Amino acid sequence: MTIIVKNVTALLAGLVFLYGCYIVLHGHLTPGGGFAGGTIIAGSFILLVIANGIQYFRLKKEKEESSMFEGAGILCFLLLATGGLLLSVPVFFRNLLPGGTPGELFSAGVIPLYNIFVGIEVAAALLSIFLAFVIYKTEE
Amino acid sequence: METKLIIILILMIAGAIHSLHARDLLSAIVSYGVVGYSLVVGFLLLKAPDLAIVQIVVETIALIIMVSVLIISTREDLAEKSTVKIKGQSYVNIRNLSFVFFALVTGVMLLYFFNIVTTGLPELGIHETRMATEYIANGVEGTGSINLVTAVVFDYRGYDTLGEATILFTAVMGILAILRLKTHKI
Amino acid sequence: MIPYMLCFVLFLVGLYGVLTRKNILKIIIGLCVMEYSLYLFLAMTGYIEGGAAPIIDPANRAGSVVDPLPQAIVLTAIVIGLATTALLLAIAIRLYKKYKTFDIDKINTLKG
Q1: Rounded to an integer, what is the distance from CA B104 to the centroid of its chain?
Q2: Cβ-nearest to A103 among C58, C75, C93
């Protein structure tokens, strides 16, 4: 791509990433949540890869890392659900943190944590899928 | 409200038909994008902003992946013959007419069965919440989340979300296994 | 009732594509169209005329909201749909590398 596209993308990708983080963190207050925010975060990385070509990242290392983040995300999700089972009333997916006032950012117990972990998992999964296709193309 | 939805649905049907009949695979994918982005408008009309956000990003990424597949392979569609040409006869022969006839009969039969099945459903816009009555009445106090969709996804129906995350993980593993990328040493 | 019927017509269009097209990519597009018609149908069943989006202001609870349950189910289904579509595309691209074509008839007949 040309230098204009590269520079504009370098400016925009951070904003898109921040917007994804905002969507994830405010998932219990506004429309959005882990699924939407995770997809937007993956979109910011995909934007960088498309604009800067395949040499920008060392793609294989990137793919390994995103696979690792994916596994870590789903593991944390499962551990949090099991923690609800072990630490309080024995119910899977028990909300073990205090609820707080509904409508504030720090409220709703563990739901924001679930949102964050699902966001990490979805973002890493979609980025892995995209990078797998790109790497497959370069390996031919 | 219903009129707007009907217009959106007709646009989706037109996009789908053109996508299935396009000569160029790139234009087929662009027409498929028409279907997905119209679905976003439909979700917004149905007061589902969560779904609209997810769908608009997912559609974009799906289109990117499809185009990346096209870049690796080819853009040209196969030379498909939609009708059977028998030597010495025109395209309007008994065989092609019977195909069209059976297709129409099957479509009308399926629509009839769908009509029978959905007679229990009320008209669009009149819906009686059964399980969701409890969620709407006590969801905010019970979970602390004022976005009820998040409350249902992560609290009341956490098992579904766990299964969904597992399916996503498995699908990524399947893609990495099928593409058989070369391993490397760090 | 007409929007429900049109949703089913969209489903039938996807089914037609899956049954009659020879190109793998178009079969995948047909499957995705079927998925989309299902999402829209499920979202329609939870719609309430005059209801607001399912986000409740705790201070002011007047007015009805639409049913959040179908929306939550569709939310997970959309992301799964993307993952399965990508899996199908991976299979398609492997088949293209082996047979140099997207034609399912030729993929059937070429053994080995």
Answers
A1: 23
A2: C58
Shortest distance, CA B164 to any CA of chain A (angstroms): 10
B101 contact A CB<8A: no
For each of the domains in chain C, give its residue range(s) and CATH number, in order of start.
Answer: 2-50+66-109 (1.10.287.3510)
Domain ranges, residue B133: 129-186
Contact criterion met (CB < 8 Å) for B127 and C48: yes
Please check whether residue B26 lies inside any domain of the structure: no
Q: A41 is in which domain, residue-wise?
A: 3-138
Query: Which residues in chain C land under pLDDT 70?
Result: 109-112
pLDDT digits (tens, 9 = 90+) for B128-143: 778 878 888 777 777 7
**Structural domains of chain A, count:** 1
Q: What is the largest CA-CA distance in chain B?
A: 77
Smallest Cα distance from C112 to chain B, Å:
18
Residue type, C65: V
Alpha-helix residue ranges (DSSP H) falling in chain C = 2-20, 24-45, 68-99, 104-109
Q: Do C83 and B168 touch (CB under 8 A)?
A: yes
Give chain A positions within 8 Å (CB) of C89.
133
Instruction: Evaluate whether residue B17 is within a structural domain.
Output: no
| Number of domains forming the structure of chain B | 1
A13 contact B CB<8A? no
Q: Is the ipTM of this complex over 0.90?
A: no
Q: Please indicate, yes or no, if residue B64 is contained in any of the structural domains.
A: no
The C-alpha atoms of residue B26 and residue B24 are separated, in whole angstroms, by: 5
Higher pLDDT pick, B48 / B76: B48
Of the candidates C15, C30, C23, C21, the residue with the CA atom closest to the CA atom of residue C92: C23
**Between B69, B143, B172, which is nearest A108 by CB?**
B143
- Does residue B45 sit within a domain? no
What is the distance of C-alpha B147 from the center of its chain? 25
Kindly state whether C82 is in contact with chain A, defined as any CB-CB distance less than 8 angstroms: yes
